[in-house]
Amino acid sequence: MDTIVRDLRYAIRTLRRAPGFTTVVVLTLALGIGANTAVFSVVNGVLLRPLPLPEPERLVYIGWRWGDGEFNTTMTAFKYAFLREHARVFEGVSTEQAWLTELGEDWDEVRGLRATPDVFRVNGIAPVLGRGFTEEDVRPGAEPVVVLSDAVWRTRFDADPAVLGRAVRLGGVPHTVVGVLPPGVRLPEAPAYADFVVPYVVEPDPRDEGHNYRVRARLAPGVTRERAEAELRALSARFREAHPELMDADEIGFTLLGYGDVLVGDLARTLWLLLGAVGFVLLIACANVAHLMLARAITREREIAVRTAIGAGRGRIVRQLVAESLVLAVAGAALGVLLAGWSIDALLALVPTGLPRREEITLDWRVLCFTLAVALATGLAFGLAAAAHAFRVDPATPLRGAQQAGTPERRRARSIIAMAEAALAVVLLTGAGLLIRSFFELRGVDAGFEPRHVLAVEFGRTPPEYVEAARVRQFEDALLERIRRLPGVLSAAASSGLPLESQFNFPMTVVGRPEATRGDVQWRAVGPEYFETLRIPLLRGRAFTEQDGESAPPVVIIDELFARKYFPGEDPIGKRIDIGTFQGREAIPGFDDPEREIVGVVGAVHVLRLDEAPIETMYIPRAQAPQAFGLGGLATLAIRVDPRAGRATTLAPAILAEIRALEPRMPAPGFSEMTEVVGASMAQERFNTALLGVFAGLALVLTAIGIYGIAAYTARQRAREIAIRVALGAQSGAVVRGEIREGMKPVALGLGAGVVTAAALTRLMSGLLFGVSPTDPRTFAAVLVTLATLASVAIWLPARRAAAADPMEILRHE
Predict the structure, then answer these.
(1) Average pLDDT, stretch 153-161?
(2) Which of 473, 60, 102, 106 has the alpha carbon at shortest distance from 262?
């Protein structure tokens, strides 16, 4: 131990005597290690860290699978009830839904969960006071009960143990407190810590085919995932046998899913891709450091030869060189951790909303162990490489005052470093280039409407009486009339949801044609001026008017995809459809909607994402929407603003004033421009592009610095040769061209190797691309031209300086 301490002290003293070298190496490693640490902290928090629940390995999700490999992370209420009744390998099966409501007499907003009775058993938690839920709590007519969070119990009830049995008003309805949760409890998919949990009554009906229930289960003690999967296969067969009308031929049935399948999805592939990208950045940084270490080893040949001559053993020299490398690596890692801690917030600011377990992304012990492992591996590699170089040098040569800087072996080492940097840079820049092209292709997609100069107004919680359809319509009509009179407003309309924000599906059958049926047609309940406001083109027939009221004949407008699929080669105007029926039967329990006449055809609109094709959509007048269409709340408003009035959001204060004039108790809604909504739909693509672009830019800078450093060092070593050539009459231009030609040979080989590697690796990105092939030739060509130009400039600068030097001065110095 004393020897190790002495080695470390000597290494620190030695490095302090070379501040320039030490600073460059530490900063280079800090950039590479810091980027890796920041991205790994996200991967660790989202993918690797165990769920913060007891025995998380027993927690599973159950979805529904089709024969083509696709699966749904949710299922219908009827399938959930069948699973819960017949499964024997689970300790509990539960489903939950978030609920945003008001607490107490002051109507303070709280966030909670509706959950089935098994929720506490499935998550392995138990109330610290009172009890959880029982089957009696979800029977018809049962008294409403609630389990409070620890935070609400302490802040609202002063941690009073006598809170059990007290009545708490949630959404205006009294609930009896039956339990209090332990502190810090949070379910994996919950967007925030729940303030309360109430029983959730699931009403299974085979006619309801909406996959709206996410199901979690806890494996029984001793049950393996393989046994659970086998039972789910058997249950799927039993379900098909008992209810053949509810399963198509291509459906497989129940399937076991993991946390990553359900809550992370495609983001997992993105995070692993980014971790691989920053790994390439670290490799480029290491290549730069390797060249610096090689140059330093050449300058220290005499020192090592002297130590060898006076009796130092190989083990002693190896320990010393490894100690210096470890000091550099640890210093770079320490600075990298500081950079990562600063950059995590910036990284999370780029991450799309909805990232699971966002609050768990920290520099915990796993991240620090990862950083330490990277630092130790880097330090050991450099130290052993330096030692191997030292032992390949004949000690007599440096003792005679000669150096072997220009030996073929060392030239080959520098060429390999340049090749590696060029190849790694090609891979990173190609990936970033493909994502950039894909992002711009996505931005060029016609959304089907004009988002510019449109203001979206979205209401959150409302006073309790605004769940009644008549009150909702009255308020909406009055508010829209006031808004339309505001200066700068061109049109305004109400809608059950705006494009790229929400999706609602209903079954449908064409009247008189029972074969023309579908179980999930997109729909919107919209008011007059909706198509005008969003500039959705009217292709045939008419738009909705004020006359399409509740007592008017029921009508519907379809889009061009709907018309093309169900009315090919004919005019759909005047035809009728029956919403809510599927394959000749009522598909939605309690849904009572009359047959509707088609009065218009409009253009197709993208529903949720620009990279997904539009789907068939039908529109009904909002005034004619039954309660089952979800009219139990205020609509989203779309307001088109005159471009001369400035940004659409400048009208927000005037609109808020009109809202308060009608209803002083109404909370302020959310205001956003539709261009922001369109941008939010591309948040994942923007995140991928921005982050990989940053890493590719960092790799480009490091590569340029590395190639320049190699060229500059080579030029210094060949200064005497260049001086002799110039003195004998060689033109400086010819000398520079020769140096560029020699320097570009390893770079060209690296570019070729990088193209082959990139062509293989970019295929892994195919799921992240839109409108661009993973082997897009224009992207590859642009990357090659960029890197070749950059490398040529990096080689040209030191070559030009060497050719322009005074030959007599150099020769006299020699």
Answers:
(1) 89
(2) 60
